[in-house]
Structures are given as C-alpha cells and as structure tokens.
From TrEMBL:
Presence of the UniProt keyword Glycosyltransferase in the record: no
SUPFAM superfamilies to which the protein is assigned, alphabetical: Aldolase
Pathway listed: Porphyrin-containing compound metabolism; protoporphyrin-IX biosynthesis; coproporphyrinogen-III from 5-aminolevulinate: step 1/4
CDD domains: ALAD_PBGS_aspartate_rich
Originating gene: hemB
InterPro entries: ALAD, ALAD_AS, Aldolase_TIM
Family statement: Belongs to the ALAD family.
Keyword Glycoprotein attributed: no
Pfam families per record: ALAD (PF00490)
Origin species: Hoeflea poritis
One example GO MF annotation: porphobilinogen synthase activity
Protein name: Delta-aminolevulinic acid dehydratase
C-alpha cells in the first residue's frame, strides 16, 4: 500500500471493530425484531373443520371459524399478540351495498366470537371495509359507477359496532373513505364501546401488490374498474401525511401503512410526524414474491423473511401485519 495508511485515512476510526464478534454485534444492534411485533392476518371461510389452500399465497389457507380459533391458540402459544381476520363469504351473500357486513352473525363476527371464546387474551383486529361483502369488489357502496362516500361511512360505523359487540378489540377500517375514523369513533362511543380502539389504515395506496389478497377473499374476478378514486396515488407522500393527520384528529389510536416494504419512507414520515403507534402491512404480494423466489432457489427464504421484517422496525414500525407471523415467531423462539 502506498501513500497514507488506513489509520491515517480514517483517523484511527475503524468501523469493523464493533463487527468483529457476535457478542459485540449483538451489543450494538440498533433494532431488534421480537414476537411482540407480529400480527397474524388470517382468512376465513364459512362452515366447520374446513380449510382451503390459496394458490397465490403458498403456505396460507382459508379456514372456518372453528379452525381460526385453533390458529389463535397456536399464535398465543408462540406469543403473537394479535390476529387480524378477513372473510371470504359466499358469493350469494354479496350485493351492491355489501349489506351482509351489517349481519351480527356474519362470518367475521362468527369467527371473532369463536376466537375470543377459545383465546380470550389474544387481540382480535377486524376490518370493516366492504370489499369482501360487495358484488363488485369495491370498499364502498357503488351507485351509478361512483363509490359514494357518506353512505358508505354510515354503514361502516354500524358494522364497527356489530364487530365490537362480537368481541373485536380493535377496529381497523381499510376503505379510505373520508371521515370514517371519526364516524366509527362516535358510533363505538355511543354504543358503549369507548374502550375499543381504532387502527386506521391511514395511508393505503392504490398498489399492484394486493393481487394475491384479492384471490384470498374472492374478489379478483368481481372488481369493476380500480380503486384509484379513493386509495392514495403511489407517487404521493405529502398527501399520505395529510390523510394520516385527519385520522389522528378524528380519533385513531394507531396508524397503519399499506403496503409495507415499498412504502417504508411513509412509515418513517408518519412515525416522525405524529409519534403515534405505527404499523405496516406486509401485504400478499410482498409475501408471495419472497415465497416464490425461495421456492425457485433464488433467495434464502428464512433470511429474506427475517430481513424484510427487520426493515419495518428500522423504519419505525411498532407492529407488523404479516403472513409470515407464525413462521417468524417459531424462528424467534429458537434458542
């Protein structure tokens, strides 16, 4: 080596010293992923003791409420704090207004009761969006080709009360209608559910990463048009912050960003701006890409999974909705 020595170049500062040993790496690690960070989304189907594979999401199944309760027991044993439920209801029950969401005995409420009976201590997070209930696959009521905001919000607020009555601990509206957080908060309070929280999908983007999810809830062949008139444009960041600010003012208890990895900058901005509990949803497309690459031998599946989850923590996430939750929890429990 000619010229200056490495110590002269760096001023005797060598970053590799702290990387030399496993113990020193662990000592200075800035972010840590634990089971406490995980929320497990599960898909529901009607009936008993029945499960269905989801072709676009290897390793993920739709299950009946009785089996959802057993999954909740497994999650609780691993220390996973909460699960989130998403129904795939019978096509005959879907209509233009998503009216089945207003049934106290619909699939999502049936599953909540079964889960809370089996595992009272696990958190149950329910979504009041109408897309699993509509015949057109949109998150709101469709009138003359337009998603009507205010009528949808009124229906979501009623559905939120029914979900709280069934035992939901947190309501997580993902529809992106204007004013829905405040309307749901008012409805819950008036019905005596002031302790039931709201996780706002504060920034849900009009993303291409939702495809496998739409197969999972049975809307992939129903959706008419797209959702760009109410989801956020992927090009926008300031709009996302303004949207989240409204949800904070209306009474949201936690904020969520969806999708996850493509929008880590949004996670960071929301956490820095509001200092509130902030979650991200590692959506179906993110999950399926990792699974497909691992299946083909292009990536180490376990390492990629864990690295992707750690990225959420580094960006400021307090919790992560991920289909990897069970798999990751088992790895985190290893000695």
């Amino acid at each position: 080596m000619t010229g200056r020595t490495v110590d002269e170049i760096t001023g005797n500062r060598r970053m590799r010293r702290n990387r030399r040993f496993d113990w020193s790496q662990r000592l200075v690690r800035e972010n840590t992923l634990t089971v406490d960070d995980l929320i497990w989304p599960i898909f529901l189907i009607p009936g008993e003791n029945r499960r269905e594979d989801i072709a676009a999401m290897p390793g993920v199944q739709r299950v009946t409420p009785d089996l959802a309760a057993k999954q909740a027991e497994e999650a609780a044993e691993l220390g996973i704090p909460a699960i989130a439920t998403f129904p795939n209801i019978d096509i005959a029950l879907r209509d233009e207004t998503g009216s089945n969401v207003l049934s106290a005995d619909n699939l999502i409420n049936e599953a909540t009761r079964a889960i809370k009976k089996a595992v009272p201590q696990i958190g149950v997070i329910t979504d009041v969006a109408l897309d699993p209930f509509t015949s057109h696959g949109h998150d709101g009521i469709l009138r003359d080709g337009v998603i009507v905001n205010d009528e949808t919000v009124a229906q979501l607020a009623q559905a939120a009360v029914l979900q709280a009555e069934a035992g939901a601990d947190m309501i997580a509206p993902s529809d992106m209608m204007d004013g829905r957080i405040g309307a749901i908060r008012d409805a819950l309070n008036e019905a005596g559910f002031s302790d039931v929280g709201i996780i706002s999908y504060a920034t849900k983007y009009a993303s291409a990463f939702y495809g496998p999810y739409r197969e999972a809830i049975g809307t992939q062949d129903l959706l008419k048009g797209d959702k760009r008139s109410y989801y956020i444009d992927p090009a926008n960041t300031d709009e996302a912050v303004r949207d989240a600010a409204l949800d904070v003012e209306e009474g949201a208890d936690m904020l969520m960003v969806k999708p996850g990895l493509p929008y880590l900058d949004i996670v960071w901005r929301l956490k820095e701006t509001f200092g509130m509990p902030t979650l991200a949803y590692q959506v179906s497309g993110e999950y399926s890409m990792i699974k497909a690459a691992a299946h083909n031998g292009w990536l180490d599946g376990e390492r990629t999974m864990m690295e992707s989850l750690l990225a959420f923590k580094r960006a400021g996430c307090d919790g992560i909705l991920t289909y990897f939750a069970l798999e990751a929890a088992k790895l985190l429990r290893r000695p």
